[in-house]
């Protein structure tokens, strides 16, 4: 621990608790930005899984296997990878 200074935490009575939760505009904006980021990431990762599950249950995977917009090898690989 080169250069670290470790000391005992202050006593409970020495902490100014009314300043502990003081919010500023920057703090509020950070909180909103973090919430938006978490929501976006969750939506990004969950939506494709749900969509693929929906297509599989609807029987669309068999239709996609027979219909090819790409070359036969690539589309077959992609569809098998998504619906395996």
Q: Provide the helix percentage.
A: 55-70%
Give average pLDDT, whole number.
76
Which residues form runs of ≥5 with pLDDT under 50?
Answer: none
Shape: elongated
How many DSSP-defined strands? 0
Number of domains: 1
Order of helices and strands: HHHH
* Gyration radius over CA: 26 Å
Give me the number of helical elements: 4
Distance between the termini: 50 Å
Could you give a short description of this structure?
The chain has four helices and no strands. With 84 residues, the protein is an all-alpha fold.
Structure write-up:
This protein is an all-alpha fold and 84 residues long. 68% of the residues lie in helices and 0% in strands. It has 4 helices and no strands. It is elongated, with a radius of gyration of 26 Å.
Features:
4 helices; mainly alpha; single chain; 84 residues
Secondary structure elements and their pairing?
Blueprint: H1 17-20, H2 25-58, H3 60-66, H4 72-83
